[in-house]
Give the backbone structure.
Amino acid sequence: MNPRATILIPAFNEEALIARTLLRVSDGMEPGEFQVVVICNGCKDGTAAAAQRALPWAEVIETALPGKTNALNIGHETARAPVRVYMDADLDVDVQTLRALVAPIEAGKVSATYGHMAVDVSNSSFAVRSFYRVWALNPYLAEGKFGGLFALSAAQAELIHPLPRVTADDEFIRRNVGAGHATAVENCSFKTRAPSTLGDLLNIRRRSLRGTRELDQQGLAALETAGTMSGVSILRSLASRPHLWVSALVYYAVAIFVRAVVSLEDPDRAPRWERDDSSRRVT
């Protein structure tokens, strides 16, 4: 039986949570239904061993060279299914979500699919919860989130690989696929965990902004959609929601601070990859 899809999971120092991720996503899978490939890139911990223990039939690859795009390129070379699923190692995804995600591509309707992302803020500070209350007003999110978890046809994957070394890998893929070739799947949802602390939130927001600017400088124009967020659209949404005005102050303070910090960075400095470690603690 050939697998329906190859699931590519790049992992960098994810020993604490890789077992949880793999056990959840594999629960209910039929034998041979999916090819699962975990690419441990530059890990200094026991990610590879933890992944193999949790899911012995998964293909676990180790490379000394860190970098998510490098990991995805390696995984792409091992993929043998007609659909490729790109999945971050810190997400909660179940097999029903995967089946829904790949079905439109299998049917030949589109060459890329994505789902809807929920953000768990139960372990976050007041400032982080406030930020995400306003961030959730982004109309783009109502249409789905091309990032963290998405799928491409094998033909589409061939067109974008090998991926260059960029910070915003998901956004690079989204812009190269193009809006007309991708669709959101309504019955496909997954969960991510918000940072616990404001400092960790600032880390990932700096990386996000830096990565987007990097793509802009490369001439990869951002995709405009009906739900593209602007400062005006958020302010209009907030005008009728006075209970969110305090949260709005936090949101805009974070946005202004991050823009100021990134604008002062040395453009010739080697790229950095900040991440949130606070949400990776398994309790």
User: Anything to note?
Assistant: The CA atoms of residues 209 and 259 lie 8 Å apart. The chain has a mean pLDDT of 90.
